Amino acid sequence: MSSTWFWIVIAAVVVLVAVLVSGLLIARRRRISIAEPREVEQKPKGGGYAASGGITFAPGGEARPDPGEAHPVVDRPEVDGQPGVGDDAAVPRDSGQRSVRDVALPEPESAEEAEAETPAKPATSAKPAAPAKPATPAEPATPAAPAAPDSASTPATSAPPAEPVAEPAPEPVAEPAPEPVDEIDPAIGRLERLRGRLSKSRSMFGQSLLGLLGGGDLDEDSWQDVEDTLLLADLGAATTTQIVERLRDELGRRAVRSSDEAREVLREVLTAALSTDSERSVRALPHEADGRKQPAVVLVAGVNGTGKTTTTGKLARVLVAQGATVVLGAADTFRAAAADQLQTWGERAGASVVRGKEGADPAAVAFDAVKQGITESVDAVLVDTAGRLHTKTGLMDELGKVKRVVEKQAKVDEVLLVLDATTGQNGLAQARVFAEVIDVTGIVLTKLDGTAKGGIVFQVQRELGVPVKLVGLGEGPDDLAPFEPGAFVDALLG
Ligand SMILES: Nc1nc2c(ncn2[C@@H]2O[C@H](COP(=O)(O)OP(=O)(O)OP(=O)(O)O)[C@@H](O)[C@H]2O)c(=O)[nH]1
């Protein structure tokens, strides 16, 4: 009997100990750990685009980049049947309720207003100058200058101006720059994070090409496949033919046998196809004019939604991070939210923003932005323009007018055309129209992170004879990188 009790007690003790031990283990697991979290392996967003340096800037001024040799029209079969002038117009994302035609042009109500619309009369002299309050990034935020009433500068967008162009009678509101709220990473950090954004481009293009070329002697079918791969990646017929010819020559001449050798040849040929003698630095640094400091003036142009505002903001960040002072001109008065968007970029980067009322004359806003830039002796004025492309005439009127009006005060040093890489051939058609309208000096190719068709770079540069200067690799504020042919080809090939 006593031994039975003995064993019962022993069993109870064992059960008790087991319950205690498991309870402790469970409690331990649930406890919040304050230890250093394990390093989560950062998955790169894509392949391997890694620029070897930061974005380079050059002073503006007289020297203009070499426009390069224009591509002969006969070599442009890839653009046959592409959208013509004006076909690419897209309705701004957030302004479905409004169009150019809907904007009524009010009759001048007073003699003064009527006078302001007279071409010969400089509007600036008819208006009091905007408050000459310096707005450096470090300055504390002050209340915005009161918005001036509407005037003759209002919806000039609805009526294409006749030549000679009326100078603007702007009513832009000069916004003081608040304290920058964002810490801007040094260039090297940004480049690290840009590593690997071209995965989609890489997977299709590089792998299939290397698969074909690495297989030894190629028969005609295989060469046809090489051509198809290049065409599918948006390199265009002329560039494709050129590249295939060079590949045939080089592979034969060097008696390439291994896939590594084939890769090297492919890299060389593609990089050579992207090289240009034109300067890739962005002319966004000040220069001297008549013994005075003159801000560099950069116009950012492109069709709706390509990323103009985003690129303008990103560029301002890079400049400010390098110690430059920047004024942003919100001359995209067509899309309601564009000025707000730019304002936010300005606030985050530490740049003043000059904006007009919605529907105001873009040239008036651009004029005032440059005026403020000169008054405040800043280093660069970046003007975000509207991207309407309803008709070539409309575009000419607007963009041409912006440039002419700005150049009454300062030379435009850089005209950056923003193209959305995901639109492929359509981007090329847009580029052609813009190049006819305005003297484009550099291309920014955005959304390369979202396309398998990075090949548009080859065509755009070849056809326009204008260098691709920058690439957009994401929506983030630091996702802007200098364009480097070698790095780009490496990213494509993986
Ligand atoms: N993935 C990706 N998105 C981008 C890039 N650049 C811009 N975007 C996005 O593209 C969209 C359009 O950009 P915006 O800067 O507003 O374009 P916009 O040309 O100023 O447009 P409008 O004002 O309508 O003329 C936004 O959602 C941006 O975040 C890029 O390099 N990569």
Question: Which helices and strands occur, and which strands form pairs?
Answer:
Elements: H1 2-30, E1 57-59, H2 111-116, H3 123-126, E2 173-175, H4 187-194, H5 199-213, H6 220-232, H7 237-253, H8 259-274, E3 282-285, E4 287-289, E5 292-294, E6 296-301, H9 308-321, E7 326-331, H10 338-349, E8 352-355, H11 362-375, E9 380-385, H12 392-406, E10 414-420, H13 425-437, E11 442-446, H14 456-464, E12 468-472, E13 480-482, H15 485-493
Parallel strand pairs: 1-3, 6-9, 6-10, 7-8, 7-9, 10-11, 11-12
Antiparallel strand pairs: 2-8, 4-5, 12-13
Helix pairs in contact: 5-6, 6-7, 7-8, 8-15, 9-10, 11-12, 13-14
Bound molecules: guanosine-5'-triphosphate.
Molecular structure report:
- With 494 residues, this protein is of the alpha/beta class.
- It has one domain: Rossmann fold (3-Layer(aba) Sandwich), CATH 3.40.50.300.
- Helix content is 39%, strand content 12%.
- The protein contains 15 helices and 13 strands.
- It has helices at residues 2-30, 111-116, 123-126, 187-194, 199-213, 220-232, 237-253, 259-274, 308-321, 338-349, 362-375, 392-406, 425-437, 456-464, 485-493; strands at 57-59, 173-175, 282-285, 287-289, 292-294, 296-301, 326-331, 352-355, 380-385, 414-420, 442-446, 468-472, 480-482.
- Strands 2-8-7-9-6-10-11-12-13 form a nine-stranded mixed beta sheet, sandwiched between helices.
- Helix 5 runs antiparallel to helix 6, helix 8 packs antiparallel against helix 15 (485-493) and helix 13 runs parallel beside helix 14.
- The longest helix is centred in the N-terminal third of the chain and has 29 residues, at 2-30.
- Mean pLDDT is 72; it is low at 30-47, 64-170 and 189-195.
